[in-house]
Amino acid sequence: MQKQTEQEDAGSVSAIYQEFETWSVNLGDKTIHAKRMPGFFRSIKYKTGSLWLLFFLGPYARWNGKQAVLFDIDNRQFHFFNLTVLPQDIWMLSLLLLVMAMTLFAVTSVASRVFCGYFCFQTVWTDVFTWIEEKIEGNPTQRRKLDNAPWNVKKFRLKIIKHSIWLVIAALTGISFSIWFVDAFDYWRSLLTFRLPMVGWVTLTMFIAGTYLLAGLLREQTCFWLCPYARIQAVMTDSQTIMPTYDARRGEPRGKLQRNAEAGTQGDCIDCFQCVQVCPTGVDIREGQQLGCITCGLCLDACDSIMDKVGRPRGLIRYASLDEIEGKPVKKLYQHTRTWIYIGIILVALGGIVYGLTHLGAMTLRVIPERQPLFVRMSDGAIQNKYEFKVVNKTDRDLHVNVSAEGGVTGQIILGAEQPLLTHHGRGTSFTIFVRAPGENIKQEVTPIEFRIQSTEDPSVGAEYDSKFNAPKP
Amino acid sequence: MSEDQNPSGDGKGQTRAQHKRNAESGNPYQSSDGGVTTTGHLWDDDLADFTNPPPKWWMLGLAVSAIWVVVYWLYYPSVPIPTSNTFFKGIGGWTAIREMDADKSEVDAVRGKYETRLKTLAPAAILADSDLTEYVKRSGKVLFGDNCAPCHGTNGVGTKDKEGLFAPVLNDDDWLYGGTIGDIYTSISGGRQGMMTAHQDSLSAQQIDDVAKYVKAMSDEGKDKADTDAAVAAGKKVFAESDCTSCHGADARGMQAMGSANLTDKIWRFDGSLEGIKHTIAYGVDSGDPKTRVAIMPSFKEAGKLSDTDIKKLAVYVYKFGGGQAEAPVAVEPAASAVPAQ
Q1: Which residues, numbered 170 to 209 in chain B, qualify as contacts with chain A under a Cβ-Cβ cut-off of 8 Å?
Q2: What is the rounded (10 degree) CA torsion for A206, A209, A211, A213?
Q3: Between 1.10.10.10, 1.10.760.10, 3.30.2350.20, 1.10.1740.10, what CATH number should domain B100-175+183-191+298-319 receive?
Q4: Which residues of A228-246 are buried (b: 16+ CB within 10 A; e: fewer)?
Q5: Which of A26, A31, A287, A378 best tests the B interface by mutation, with the highest count of B CBs <10 A?
Q6: pLDDT category, B9, cuts 50, 70, 90?
Q7: In this model, does residue A31 exceed pLDDT 50?
Q8: What phi and psi, each to the nearest 5 degrees, are found at residue B251?
């Protein structure tokens, strides 16, 4: 009989609805008004979040009279203090992205989504926005009351102030983003005189709208439904990864605190819902690790403060691995193979970047031999080849270069570089060079030749390139 | 909209209490009067479609798209008027030509600063300015391709027909009419016409054969060696005694003023084989003989074929092929006149 009912349940539509009932899906129909409680993890979050001040203040730093860090897209240059990286060396960017991705993966494999909880711009900006909300509209209870209250002068005034401050922060965010790409002071000057280029206005508008919408209105819904990282986190964590976990063995059966309860009938959880109250994404951590949890640890602070009050040990909710909760032996960090693989990839990529930065070379040379015609016969029977030289001068000043050649044909002469040639700094310069060789010395159709350029101002600056000297069949 | 409707339909969630009540009643999609609104179609006995309205944002998007279609039609030329064989021009005044003109003026603005300088400078002065030379080398390609390449070939490699070289190679250092920038400018501007009389009547076949051998030896072995070579001594005699020297000079090195060829170098205007040389001697160049060699370059200045600036550009472009010869004193300062200093 029991079995038959189960089968009916599984096969019938109503069973699906039963399943549906157990879901608790945060669709944003109710605004989450999280309570702010002081605590260890709260203070960590303030500290990590304040690292973002660098984003706002960094562009104003000067170095040798120029912006210290500037991604100059207009001039296709990247300035990092003394270093200037041109598009030719942009391959290092892919390694940098690899390092950043792998760092994220490694951290996630050790301590799950700490990036989300403490550092992600969505989390930090939302935190700042709700902090402002709390200062203006009061604590969560007052906020809910205000939201439900009919519109009056006071409500209108409070809302106007709050949204204005939000918009100012959104605008500052957009401005701070932009001034990483154009000179900070130039940008402010054009902004205040309404002379930004169209792309500047579009970027600023998009950032104001995006910041206001994502941090002010969407908030945790972004983590739930927009962020891909929340979705792929599961593949990066395993049973050794620590994450905020409710110790169900200790906490269950939960129940309201009773003055004269029999010892042993109740778990440590007093069902006070403080962990849910403080959660910025509104999840109940007691249901287990879930999509909405950004592992910010605020519920740990909340639970610990309650445990202190009821005189039970802290750590009912704590950073713990699945192994630990299930009572399995806990492995040491160095036994975590996955993390080592990530670290290995990070080291390889970092090595690549270090190699790249130390081997940037102050100058690059490309030589393109003329193909139509491959060679020209001169009136004295000599054979002349034409080459297009493309020189990128990566130093910060214009340099003159001398051209020389190794190999090639005996008795050849280089024409077109009698005077040192000017190469403009920070961009490519091209010039035409001819090589003329006596016909009788040519032994083969194709002779290898290596071109060298060397700066007259600084002989350590130079470059070489392998090319070919073409001739008719001897 | 009832509070009991599909939570995924309009983006609005349900409270836990609603969930519970719906789950207990068996179907959360049921409307409050107990019935389920469906399209009324049934498939496979019990499959039906709900008639939930699409989300508001979606309907809004549809309406905006419909309005956009109308606006687009009115703004751009799009609606044909068949009776008058025309079309509604659109209130925006957009035409493809106008858009192209706007784009072109953008390009012209970039080129403008070079073009105005090119207009006033003499070819030699252009050549002395590396920025301008670079500009000409890049922008001259189209001019050269349109006007010169049909005869001289792309990049001036020369073109051949079955009788030999049809138009001279412009890459080498051999110039019939001079290879300085001024000479090249003059050649393009005024055109050139070769002239050599046919010798089939004035010289016997044997004499033509002898002199051809001597001329070939001068190129192959060098003039000094050919002069002492007994095998071509007969040809040398013909060369000295007939009218050859009057144009090619006693030293056989040609005269730039009349464009006669240097016979001692390795480069042949038409064909360097013995047969080819004999043909040139027998039938001449532009001589009026039916079998004559043809060497005519039109004047590009005449009839306004090319502007003076274009000709200057081409002169610099050709000079930079690699064969250009330095002019004694190069005028660096801008010359007031467009005519090059000769």
Answers
A1: 171-174
A2: -140
A3: 1.10.760.10
A4: ebbeebeebbeebbbbbbb
A5: A378
A6: very low
A7: yes
A8: -90, 0
B271 within 8 A of B162, measured Cβ to Cβ: no
**Which residues does chain B have within 8 Å of residue A432's beta carbon, measured at their own beta carbons?**
137, 320, 322
- Give the separation between CA B297 and CA A33, rounded to whole angstroms: 88
Q: Give the mutation candidate from A31, A371, A376, A440 for the B interface (greatest B CB count, under 10 A).
A: A376
Distance CA B154, CA B158 (A): 8
What ipTM score was computed for the predicted complex, to two decimals? 0.70
Rounded-to-integer distance, Cα A314 and Cα B28, Å:
42
> Searching chain A, which residue's CA lies closest to the CA of residue B171?
A376
Q: How far apart are CA A345 and CA B295, in angstroms?
A: 70
Yes or no: say if B147 and B248 are a contact pair by the CB < 8 Å rule.
no
Architecture of domain A363-470: Sandwich (2.60)
Beta strands A383-393; A413-415: pairing state: unpaired
CA angle A218, A221, A223 (to 5 degrees): 120
* The architecture CATH gives domain B195-294: Orthogonal Bundle (1.10)
CA dihedral for A332, A336, A341, A343, sign (positive or negative)? negative
pLDDT value of residue B204: 93
Distance CA A448, CA A367 (A): 13
Whether residue B255 contacts residue B248, with contact meaning beta carbons closer than 8 Å, is answered with yes
